Amino acid sequence: MKRKQPDSGSEDEYRPVSTPKRQRTTANGIMNNNLNGNGSPEASPTKRTPRKSNAATPAALKESGLKTPTQRAKAKALFTTTKSTTVSTPTRARNADRSAKKKSARLLLEQDDEEVWDGAYRLAEEILEDENDAPATTADGNKEVKESVEASTEPTEKSAQTPKRRAGRPKGARNKRSPTPEGELPPHERYFFQNRAGPTHTSNNTLNKVSLLTHEEYFDTLARYTDPCKREKEFLLDLHHRSFPQWDFEFDQGFNICLYGFGSKRRLLQSFADWLHQKHSPASPSIVIVNGHTPNISIRSIFATIATAVLGADLPSKLGSQPVEVLELLQSVLKSRPSQEPITVLINSIDAPPLRRAVNQALLSRLAATPMIRLLATTDTPNFLLMWDINFRDQYNFVFHDCTTFAAFDAEFDIVEEVHGLLGRKGRRIGGKEGVGFVLKSLPENAQNLYRLLLTELITMLDDGHNSDDEDGGQGQGENNAHNETGIEFRMLYQKATEEFVASSEMMFRTLLKEFHDHQMITSRIDASGMEILGVPLSREEMEGVLEDLVLS
Amino acid sequence: MALSLLESEAPDLSRDGLNTQGVYIYRPANAKPNKPQNERPPKRRKVESDGQEKQEEKSQGAQARPFVPLLNGEESASSVDLRYNAYQRLWSKQEAKIQEVLEDVDSKILEEVSSFVKESSAQIYDGCIPSALVTVGSNVSSLGRLVTRLNERLITSGEGGVVVLESGDAPNIKTTLKNIIRAAVTNTEGNDGYQSFLTDREGPRLLAYDLDLLGDYVQRKGVTKLVLAFRDSEAFDPNLLTDLLSLLSSWLDRIPFTLLFGISTSVELFEGRLPRSSVALLRGQYFELHEASNCVDRIYERLQADPDGEFWLGRSITGVLFERTSDYFYTPEAFCRTVKYAYMSHFFANPLAVLFSKDSASAGLPHGKLCQAVRNLPSFRALCEDLVEDGHSKQVRNLLENDEYLFQECLKYLETGQKQMRNIFEAVKSTHTFLKHLNLSKKIGVSDISILALSGELHNSQIVNDILNTMKTLDSEGLKGLLATVPENLADSPQVREIQRDFEALLEAYPNSKPLQSGYDNRNSVAKVTVVQQRVQVTKSKAKQPKQNVEYTQILDRFHATLGAYFAETLVGPQDLYLYEVFLLDMRYPLKDTVAPRPRFAIERALSSPFDYLISTSDTPENRLSAKQPVTAILYQLYLESGAIVNAHDLWSAFYAVFESDQGDECDERVIMALFYRALSELKALGVVKNSRKKVDHIAKTSWAGL
């Protein structure tokens, strides 16, 4: 961040000389977006609300973005003139010079860090050569602060001397060192460029000021949104519907089908099932639908369901615990019934995490290779082909169709949970307060009492401001996470539970806790001293809400 | 009471409720209300039995064709049926050919392996387990075919059977043994047999992985050979394999095992992975399977160049097929399926394919639409232009106005076109034999020549030139051989017959001389080296030829000219034939994407330019980032411009700014936040971002577009 400014400044001036690539870069409008993405928050670090800072910049940039190349060419000329002609305000200029020199010296010392920017390096040398009494100061803590202040002012001063340039260039553009300075880098170059060694250059903004969504809010707000592309998406879906007869023919010829492309294909699959059912109306084929995203889905259950679809009442009471056994039973049954109508198996997201493992894929591919089984699988990830080697591909015998739908993955995974996991802000249980309340209602009174006890204890602890001793390093996470660290020791809760006649034995106590654990209503961790700490993955308000409901009911 | 309550709830659950289930049997949303919705197991039974009853009814009625009417849905049902029948007829013919080739390819190795299995035994090998090491190379699927056929043989002869073991079946020793035993028993007894075998026995019940079971089975059935085939032996855990081998060898006196290892790398590598003690337990023989490409080449030749061909694949499809074979180690089966798919797509989607049907002429179809389609063909236009140039404008008028006439002409042109295609492939085949005969190049296969021929370039190619040039230097023995390989319809031509006659007469006239030499042969020319003014000059001059050689050279010249003319006449570009659209399929694209998709490219494209997919109704089809795009696409484009790690807050503000600049003050921050959540979670599910531990609230980029 700090060493960035001289880089980008010099880079601008030197580009036409050192890297001729630059000429064709900026015309394509990517600049604008860069600024939207990265530049603007850096440019206005004082601003608190993102709303304002961004509202101003993109509009301004969009106009200027296209003009930049010509300005660059001019900028070079202007730069040389400022050097050669006498400057109007000598002191200011000297200050600027000095600051530039300091930074140049530092740059020269630390050059191996950033060899990519040889433009900057060369400029640094030049500045130093200008006057040979370069104060080769290395960076200590104090100076860094000072320099960073100077750094932000210095280019402004320079440009103040060249008013033309000032007018054409928006404020943010100069300070940014975009991670993609070359709009037209080939992909591999871009990869190496962005993964080069050195410190990362992102702003220090965090999401602490932004209040994140809860599940309830997410669904509430989303209900207010109307999709601008709704008609187009419907049309796209309609196009896919038109290939249903084709898919049916492909099934008929012994192929299995794999649909790929962006968007959830659940609805498409559902309507394909409807269509198949209708088309073969009197003797509708058995259709088994699998949702790959369901957690804990097992291959055995898939096979068992297919076996049920085939055998109906004749299903043997004992199927065998291994999926292979069920599969072989299925295969032998299908072999022994030549008049059996084919079974259609529709798998949503065959590349979903629960099904992704090679063992599962091997089993599924054997299922697919079974005659009389017609398999249609959808995939969501871009690299799903990597799951299958030549053997699997041979057994699956897929034909592939691009079925981009752009539909949202609402049913596939828990969006809020995913995002919080991505941002490292996990700990909000699925369902939140309502979910916990719902589960509690179905539990026996004892369990309810235990949960009430647990909540009361936790809230008391929070009230005491007694954030237990073992809370370590969670400070940066902000107040949201603080309560997660609060927990009650296992023994202590057990003691309280026995006192209140909730649980008479530890065995019983554990059984109750296990129920909570299965529903993710409690968290448990081992602290430094080896004690088990129990907590609740709810915010304080939610805890109070649940407690209230518990007491009232 | 409670029951009725549940029933009333059921319809609501049918959509959403089932969706949360991992796996379920589909039931239509508009199921008959009189069936109780909530009793699941009995319901299933009912549907099942219903289905079967109705199926019987249906099988008596007409089976619905899987084809749909084309020509905007105006194609008649009979025409659809004809098309479907034509497809079935044509493909079943081709499929039989493929099977023939595959069986033929494998037959030799099958004989070898089965004789090995028959003859080897532990006694011969000093108590070692007899094992066959089969290197399959890239030809992975061939082992499967081999093993299946071996199994059939052993079962029919009652000697035993083959148990195929894949690495997936062997997670640990117990499961492996269990799988082996079960597979061995079910192989002959069936699944029920296995169950009863497990339960109906005297004495203490044995566990399913006890080899005693297998020993018992072997004894009861009198099995003399039990082949255990490790399909992908490299993928097995070496420790497990070691344990398994020592176990098997200790049971060898009771169970007659023979092992068969499929090896994709090399025997040395395979041996290197096992400890020496295990290797010492094995003794056997080494077999090598043919490479897949060889087999694929033969299949292609049979499919395309057979003299009874009716339909051909064009140049680009051939290119796709062979590109895949060489790049990705396509198995022959996959190759055939791709060919099948090409056939399928032609007959499914091309209404003109109805002309293939033998009874299309007599069926009395309404030709109107079909003829209109024919008139739009590029090759039909070329035909008309040619006819007009030749002054047959009346005929053209007839073609354009008279449907019945056009239809009859179409059938005629189809026939001549097919004949010409057959000739082309005959020329291709003979080019191949000439190449082999003249020892020109062994590497060039039929497929390479076919690609040239299908693009109409073979005639002017190096290959044909080489053949013609080399041919001129042949001696009489060589020519004799060459004449014997000349394709039939060329050999029948008067010129060739005459040549043949003259040639035989010449040979009879000089029965005792050495083979006649060609005048073009370099051996007959004498190189003279002279030094003229300190320069070396090499002059070649023809040695004086004996008379018979001169006569022979004349014959050669004639044959050369005839052959050249034959190539020039036969090797026309298939795209220049009239109505080639009917009997030649040459569209690369649907096929290529169907068999070798590029999903990553598709997803990247969908996200970076969503309006390629979403046909925009608005009047601003610009590529600028705007709130009108799908949310994930917006976020993805912002993401593309970011560096290796991304500040989530900045990403959010940029995302917000996109909406704000579009909608002004009307936009609701929380709604946009919800959209941001959705987009971000989708990016995560696509695997392009992941959590980063480098900084707080940062996410890491994991995919670079275009790589």
Automatic annotation (TrEMBL), chain A:
Residues 41-56, 150-162 have a biased composition (Polar residues). Transmembrane segments: none annotated. The keyword Nucleus applies. Residues 232-403 form the Origin recognition complex subunit 2 RecA-like domain. Keywords: DNA replication, Nucleus. It comes from Aspergillus ruber (strain CBS 135680). Residues 28-39, 80-91 have a biased composition (Low complexity). Belongs to the ORC2 family. Residues 163-177 have a biased composition (Basic residues). Residues 1-188 are annotated as: Disordered. One of its GO terms (molecular function) is DNA replication origin binding. It is found in: Nucleus. Component of the origin recognition complex (ORC). One of its GO terms (cellular component) is nuclear origin of replication recognition complex. This is Origin recognition complex subunit 2. Pfam families: RecA-like_ORC2 (PF04084), WHD_ORC2 (PF24882). Residues 482-542 form the Origin recognition complex subunit 2 winged-helix domain. Its main location: nucleus. InterPro entries: ORC2, RecA-like_ORC2, WHD_ORC2. The keyword Cell inner membrane does not apply. GO terms for biological process: DNA replication. Component of the origin recognition complex (ORC) that binds origins of replication. DNA-binding is ATP-dependent. ORC is required to assemble the pre-replication complex necessary to initiate DNA replication.
Automatic annotation (TrEMBL), chain B:
GO terms for cellular component: DNA replication preinitiation complex; nuclear origin of replication recognition complex; nuclear pre-replicative complex. Residues 37-59 have a biased composition (Basic and acidic residues). It is found in: Nucleus. Residues 1-70 are annotated as: Disordered. GO terms for molecular function: DNA replication origin binding. Residues 600-704 form the Origin recognition complex subunit 3 winged helix C-terminal domain. Keywords: DNA replication, DNA-binding, Nucleus. InterPro entries: ORC3, ORC3_N, ORC_WH_C. GO terms for biological process: DNA replication initiation. Residues 46-355 form the Origin recognition complex subunit 3 N-terminal domain. Belongs to the ORC3 family. This is Origin recognition complex subunit. The lineage of its organism: Eukaryota, Fungi, Dikarya, Ascomycota, Pezizomycotina.
